[in-house]
């Protein structure tokens, strides 16, 4: 047997974890479909084959839907509704695919290509798929463009049925498998999970694609957007998917394999130890209590967060509900998602942030005019207040959900007191409207604000009179404070939350929140940076909100820290001259204490 050299390919780390196993390359049905011209006499037979293939595809989708661990009881939409994709509920997404199978846009085109253009069913499906994906690609909006993949998936399903290509499941049942594909639909992802594949990787996809989101919600290691993946691999090859580093290693050498296995086992052992020893409240070694909360984007993630020991949802980024659709989500749709989240958290607090759209987060349901500096433009609360009718729908949905648990509302990117006043007015109006309908709301709904614009951090004492709580958004705070675009990877080293300027702002916010007696949390990425923990604890932060999977590690790290020492470190850091100086300081203080935890985090 010829030994193939090891090949390392980079991609987007879409879901954390390491998976090692035999490759299962999911075939591209197009490659094996015979496309040909037909005679008039074959038309009705080809139309029948198309109908039968659609029926088979529908059965396959329903079979997968029933197997998802999520509730598959979602009612089937009567017709294709692109908006169904945005809720992120796998069962609803699968049902949307079922409806898409009957969409006239697809159906009529295929029938026309068979009956008029005399193509066989395979060729007609391919042509229709190309035409529709081309239409979607031409859309201005990036999220509408993304929908072309959904069309391609549905057509691929029909093609698979036409060429009677069974989804490759045999291997899945018996072997530890890594699924590799050009692209995977959320439906495929759910199917793969059902069959207990260990991980997967695709050539296409982005971190915000549904497939990535589903992989994270299901906690399955995944690397997406790996160029040249399928050219280099065949079914049965040994593969390592490293969802921490965003790397796929094909035909790993014996030493690479041993190293990957060691990391995998260490990671599992570490997680096991964390689970076993991580009970009880989070806090420092000297008994300072720290609350650990979760950042989520989907209702389904709330369940995952609970499993990781989250004491509540510190940030629900609701903008995800507005993305990937042509109209904003209705009040009922939003209400269902918020209520599901709240119920999943069993009475623990849930902070819902009003939509933070604009900047680098686009949503097709809003016509935001092109701007030279979108991060400094019509974004978040500014956009919401320019479309009060859309914000009111969201506030009404939140007000209704407040009757089911501890709900709080957070306003993003506030830079003016007037913005908080206006949102408060609109919230009062929303609550009044719901009550006038005879529906219940909580007696009070706390309204807080993100501190992510430097002006708000500087005027924290003033804003504290208008907000019921603060949440520090260090991702944006650093971007605006240091004038570094947060999406610019080349400038990323400059955008450091260790910068003493950022630390002084955080210190000011902590001081003023305490003086005003309002709760303060942090939900930026800094909250789960182990090196930053002594600074945050030392500056007075007592609530940290982060990606669910990082909660246990942070909890373990906190237990080794001493709040009194943290205060000394923070005091010194506030006097430092640069982020580099602060970084060196905290590295020295934490390295030996947290070395095992840091070694694992270094992988991430
Ligand atoms: C932040 O800016 O730190 C934050 C948590 O919000 P987002 O990342 O959604 O802008
Ligand atoms: Mg932000």
Can you describe what's shown?
With 604 residues, this protein is α/β, with parallel strands linked by helices. The protein has three domains: 1-25 and 169-266, Glucose Oxidase, domain 1 (3-Layer(bba) Sandwich), CATH 3.50.30; 28-167, Orthogonal Bundle (Enzyme I, Chain A, domain 2), CATH 1.10.274; 285-575, Alpha-Beta Barrel (TIM Barrel). The chain contains 23 helices and 16 strands. It has helices at residues 29-32, 43-67, 90-101, 104-115, 121-137, 142-162, 170-174, 186-194, 210-217, 254-277, 299-307, 331-344, 381-386, 388-401, 417-436, 454-458, 460-463, 474-482, 500-516, 533-539, 551-559, 563-574, 579-602; strands at 7-10, 12-15, 18-25, 177-181, 199-202, 222-224, 238-242, 247-250, 291-296, 313-317, 350-353, 407-411, 447-451, 470-472, 520-522, 543-546. The strands form two sheets. An eight-stranded mixed beta sheet has the order 1-8-7-3-4-5-6-2. Helix 20 crosses helix 22. The two termini are 35 Å apart. The model is unreliable at 68-88 and 167-174 (pLDDT under 50). Bound molecules: phosphoenolpyruvate and magnesium ion.
Quote the beta fraction: 5-15%
CATH superfamily of the largest domain: Phosphoenolpyruvate-binding domains
Q: Write down the CATH class of the largest domain.
A: Alpha Beta
Count of the separate structural domains: 3
CATH topology title of the largest domain:
TIM Barrel
Any idea what the CATH architecture of the largest domain is? Alpha-Beta Barrel
Could you give the order of strands across the largest sheet? 1-8-7-3-4-5-6-2
Mean pLDDT: 85
Figure out the total of helices.
23
> Quick one: how many beta strands?
16
User: Which shape, going by the Cα principal axes?
Assistant: globular
User: What is the rounded Rg?
Assistant: 26 Å
Biggest beta sheet summary: 8 strands, mixed
Distance, first to last CA:
35 Å
Helical content stands at 40-55%
